[in-house]
Amino acid sequence: MMSFSGWLRSNSQHYLLIAAHEQVAKRHGTAGPRAPRGLTDLFWLRIFAPVYRALPWPLRHRVLKAMPGSHRKTWAPPPRTRGPAV
Amino acid sequence: MVDGPNAFSYVGFSASRAKRGSALPRRTVIVGGGAAGLGSAGGVKAADPDADVVVYTQYEDVAYSPCGIPYVHGGEIDDFQKLFLAGKQAYVDAGIDVRYNTEVTAIDKARASITVAGEGEGEGEVRYDQLIIATGFDYADPGVPGGDLDGLYYVKNIREAMEWDKVLDTVKQAVVVEASPLGLEMVTSLAHRGIETHLIDPNPWALAEMADPDIMAPVEESWREMGVTLHFNTSLEAFLGEGKLRAVKTSAGELPADLAVVCTHKTPNNALAAAAGLKIGSTGGIIVDERMATSADGVFAAGDCTEIPHGFTGVPLQGLTGSHAYAQGKVAGTNAGGGSRAYRAVYVPWGTVAGKWVIGGASFGETTATALGIPHVVAQADGISRARYYPGVHKIKVKLIAEPGTLRLIGAQMVGGGEGIKERADFLAMAVKFGFTLHDLSTMENVYSPPIGALNEPIVVAATNGVNALAKTKRG
């Protein structure tokens, strides 16, 4: 059975992408996704996605990082430039 | 306990080791014979040449390139044999014991053993000192009626692909389900093969889960030129037929079809790991650390069955490329063999042939950055792949995605006529990783030689356009 975090990731990823398709299509003047159908679509696209977008990125990022996953294990920090080679 | 399939060689090893006064060799069992599994086997042997390494695979072969299958179907490669990288003897010579046509049905962490199905020699309970899980992926179940009909092709196994290739000679009309990376390749291959091809996808453009519409527009146009019919915003509803596929039912009507190529997204094949109680992440992939170690002592995992954090956001990703799987396998194998090696968070350079174009990128595009809600600006340019007068020159569109303010690069996407996309994607992934900005890229030096590179590198032009546009906005 899918975990809550798995369910949340799967649905949020799916609907945030559709919401992004709407925005990006509008910017590019191309065909967007089809209109939402049913209450589930309406909830995720018209309530969840706008609320998610309204939160500042640092807060969203903190929530994403709080989810269980490989990112919470030990990983080397991003590389930094080390100064001149010679 | 029934000892493992390698009991005799195990005794042999211990005898030779006893002469040298050393301990018994460590036994590393690897479940899965794909890129991650064989990368792991090589990693173990590199770290400990005396290690006892056993690989279990459910297939008849290992060491071939499944990613090459669409190109044999399309006729670019004339023989499936060319996809084999090494013969079975190569693994024997390397001291890697590959068990073909075997099915591992359980992992017992407490007993440090696996169960191999069947009653024959080498089956039953097999002990390990270290276990590496490299069970790969499955295609997501389309979840519609008719999934058991003949005529549904899931591209994965080379022997099956050889049989399907004969079937393709008889196919008049095919439907490709979903414009995933594999879907793009299969649409192109079937069109090359002269088969009337339809693509259905629930999204508004191809590869919409990672690519931007302006990157995919030339690809879609080229497919139309090749005779492909595209059905976007169209969902699969059922496979229709009596025993054999007759048509594909979609939200936009029925499409007659002799063949449906199911190219749904990759899901981690993790039933074994989950049943053994290994921790699974939100993507469904096995949780690992930089050593590719799982939540269980002595158990590592690599490839499409794991999830790996994105280097920029930390958000875990699952279902990367064959090169990622192989590199992860090397790391898992090295550590299982007693060495020390770390894998790094990923920035995901990618690329593929699609229609008459090559597309590629690194990290985020405009669509994925928008979906995650990452603030960004876009810098872009249309350039050329070599001197404008040199035969074979192609257009290249470069889009750079950067953080507002710092203009630090967070991703890129490109579409071009055939050359240089892969190298630019690799470079741009490193540019994201090392925190390059649009200013850095706008002052980048580039190779100029008419047959291989234009005076103005498209990345430099895109970055310069971005810097200038933002300066203008500030002034305005």
Instruction: Count helical runs of chain B.
Output: 13
Task: Give a count of the beta strands of chain B, DSSP E runs of length 2 or more.
Answer: 26
Structural class of chain A: mainly alpha
Low-confidence parts of chain A: none
Tell me, rounded to a whole number, the average pLDDT of chain B: 92
**Biggest sheet of chain B, in brief?**
5 strands, parallel
Helix content of chain B: 25-40%
Largest sheet of chain A: none
Rounded mean pLDDT of chain A is: 91
Number of DSSP strands of chain A? 0
What series of H and E elements makes up the topology of chain A? HHH
Q: Any low-confidence stretches of chain B, pLDDT <50, length ≥5?
A: 1-21
Strand % of chain A is: under 5%
**Into which percent range does the helicity of residues of chain A fall?**
55-70%
Rg calculated over all Cα atoms of chain B: 24 Å
Structural class of chain B: alpha/beta
Describe the structure in your own words:
The complex is a heterodimer of chains A (86) and B (476). With 86 residues, chain A is mainly α. Chain A contains 3 helices and no strands. Chain A has helices at residues 4-28, 38-54, 57-66. The longest helix of chain A is centred in the N-terminal third of the chain and has 25 residues, at 4-28. The model of chain A has no long low-confidence stretch (mean pLDDT 91). Chain B is of the alpha/beta class. Chain B is built from 13 helices and 26 strands. In chain B, α2 (35-47) packs parallel to α9. Chain B is globular and about 70 Å long. The model of chain B is unreliable at 1-21 (pLDDT under 50).
